Amino acid sequence: MSGIRTILLAALAVVMLALPQFVTNSFALDILIRILLFSFVGIAWNLMGGYAKQLSLGHAAYFGLGAYTSTLMQIDFDISPWIGMVAGGVVAALASLPIGWLCFRLRGPYFTIATIATAQALMLIFLKFRDFAWGAEGTTIPNLGSSPLMLQFEGKAAYYYVALGLLVIGLLVTFLIERSFIGYYLVAIGEDEDAAEAIGVNAPRIKRDIYMISAFLTALAGTFYVQYIYFIDPATAFNFNISIEAALVSIVGGIGTLWGPVIGTVLLETTSALLQSWLGSSTGGVQLTVYSLILMAVILWRPTGLMGVLHEILERYRKRYPGATAKAAP
Amino acid sequence: MFETIVQAVINGLLIGGIYALVSIGVTLIFGVVKIVNFAQGEFVMLGMYLSFYLATRFGLDPILSLVVTMPVLFVVGVVIQHVLIRRVLGPNDMPQIFLTFALSLLLLNLALMLFTANYRTVHTSYSDTAFHLGGLYIPVAKLIAFIVAMGLSSALWLFLHTTDLGRAMRAASQNRDVAILMGINPNRVFAVAFGAALALAGAAGSLLMPFYSAYPFVGQVFVLMAFVAVVLGTLGNVIGALVASLMMGVAESLGIQFVGADSGLIVVFAMLLLTLAFKPNGLGGRRLRS
User: Fold this and answer.
1) The complex's ipTM?
2) Is A217:A170 a contact under the CB 8 Å cutoff?
3) Do B94 and A112 make contact, defined as CB atoms within 8 angstroms?
């Protein structure tokens, strides 16, 4: 890592840590928390969807499992959601085994469809069995006031730091995987699965492992989200829009890159917040219309996403001033 | 008891005809253009709204409005193929999946903004009439829809097997590169395949209108069913998709009859999961990968 990169990263860390001291408006903080959280979900998706190109549209399954596991543990057994969060991750990782066993039988678009179907099926299960988990009505999560040990805080700033912590975990996991042999295996599978297998990559195993990690991380976000909004029901926890957003932020930002999901979320969530403040809350359909137009534009003109655009700008700059940024080459 | 089962099977077959129109469209595009059209259900939805407005503004019978919806959606399909799909054809899955997925999101949410989430229905003279055969009950609107759907499916089959363009499309679906070497113009073939598939979706929309409500999310019901039927019927196989769609209709109907009125989706997912677990290459069993 070059000097410039370290300085940039340190500056970013300072800004992110100091931000809640300056941004006290609760609407703005809410947007920041959403950005951090969905960046994290995007990062979890990107590990599998971006590097190994296993394009899931069913990550809401793990978001929901995480949310339900911690909430059930908290309400039925009074166990702290901090523990529930990790337990939810484990449940999600275990659930990814049979789900992956089924879905990985198909490739390409049919893998995508199978992931949609399994996530929807899980939501139906939680809708149907009302004595097991409150059915369609859902439940409010008891508000204990300021209770950091129970993942509940007075102001929004604390939630901001928790979400920031999750994001840092996601970035670190991606960074480590990207640089390990698994990262290279994943990219090989993403490029050409048959060729990767031919040169000795155990593709089924690598896909299974990365799916478990991706599911585990997604579940952590689920717990955080329901704790943050103090409410859970199947339509919230297993919302198809979560699956969509996880994939969209990664593709718009730059699929298969470390920072892609973060940049993508900043763009999409800011756009969504601006639309909301212009049009008021009655935006039925507007947000997703704009999202789908952005997605189409990216796919047709910049399949490498915003990271690709940044890269091009950097390249142009480097050509114009040879030597100036040579050491900063990523 | 026996009569109940026969009745459920008939209900399933009748709605299965509509599923077949959607599935055949999906499998035709998959076979020829080699992409999965995630937006297929939204074109059924557009067909329904088109029929709805033709019926309410111009008094055109929804089933007769086929003569408008099919050509309109054919043209829409050709345009979409030329403007959008053509640009993402290649070995990479990501742009293809997410372009048609974005199209689906776009159409659905535009419909939500333009038409609102309200349910729209058209009441025809035959909407409530039915034949009674013994103790069996056969609604006229569904019977007409089924017969027309089977007719259109047969017409497509004949087109694929007896005309030059149809043969070119089948050739392109079997081996695109060789077909191009033989002088087949891939852009023309792809455009016709996409157009024909959307025309079938439009037909499904018109046929549904006398007995089904139009709303922005309506396509999702049919597209999920179609995706399962297409896997079950072996990807890219028209007859397979037709048979599997009828099976799905029957399975769903039996589920509604014996498990509960809201169990339709559960049956669909169960069918998909069972297919994936035991027959991932479809009932035909030929190994096909996308």
Assistant:
1) 0.87
2) yes
3) no
Question: Number of structural domains, chain B?
Answer: 1
How high is the mean pLDDT of chain B?
87
Say whether residue A103 is in contact with chain B using an 8 A CB cutoff: yes
B284-289's contacts with Cβ under 8 Å and 24+ in sequence apart are B284/B233, B284/B234, B284/B237, B284/B240, B285/B234, B286/B234, B288/B234, B288/B235, B288/B236, B289/A107, B289/A108
Taking alpha carbons only, the member of A32, A74, A41 closest to residue A161 is: A32
Residue from the list B99, B117, B276 with its beta carbon closest to the beta carbon of A299: B99
What are the pLDDT tens digits along chain A (330 aa)?
578 888 888 889 888 888 888 887 888 898 999 999 999 999 999 999 999 989 999 999 999 999 999 999 998 888 898 999 999 999 999 999 999 998 888 888 888 988 988 898 888 888 877 677 787 788 888 877 777 877 888 888 889 999 999 999 999 999 999 999 888 999 999 888 889 988 888 889 999 999 999 999 999 999 999 999 989 998 899 999 999 999 999 999 999 899 999 999 999 999 988 888 887 666 578 888 999 999 999 999 988 889 888 888 888 888 887 765 544 444
Contacts of B102 in chain A (CB under 8 A): 292-293, 295-296, 299
In a domain, B81, yes or no: yes
Indicate whether B237 belongs to any domain. Answer: no
Interchain CB distance below 8 Å, A244 and B98: no
pTM of the predicted structure, to 2 decimals: 0.89
- Cβ contact B145:B63 at 8 Å: yes
Residue type at B213 in one-letter notation: S
* Residue span of the structural domain in which B49 resides: 18-219
Asked if residue A60 lies in contact with residue A219, where contact means CB atoms within 8 angstroms, the answer is: no
Task: Assess if residue B232 is contained within a domain.
Answer: no
Q: Give the number of A-B residue pairs with CB atoms closer than 8 Å.
A: 118
How many Cα atoms occupy the beta-carbon half-sphere of A108 within 13 Å? 20
Cβ distance B105 to A118 less than 8 Å, yes or no, reads no
A301 in contact with B at a CB cutoff of 8 Å?
A: no
Test mutation, B105, B259, B262, B265, chain A, max A CBs within 10 A: B105
Strand partners, B133: B136
Are A113 and B110 within 8 A, CB to CB?
no
| Under 8 Å between Cβ of B54 and B182 | no
User: Any CB–CB contact under 8 A between B261 and chain A?
Assistant: no
Torsion angles phi and psi, residue B136, rounded to 5:
-90, 150
Nearest to B73 by CA among B227, B218, B220, B197: B197
Residues A247, B108: C-beta atoms closer than 8 Å:
no
Q: Are strands B130-133 and A231-232 parallel, antiparallel or unpaired?
A: unpaired
* B266 belongs to a structural domain: no
> Which residues are bridge partners to A139 per DSSP?
A232
- Residue A56 contacts residue A248 (beta carbons within 8 Å): no
Buried b (16+ CB within 10 A) or exposed e, A190-226: beebeebeeeebebeebbebbbbbbbbbbbbbbbbbb
Reported in sequence order, the residue ranges of A45-183 that DSSP labels E, i.e. its strands, are 139-140
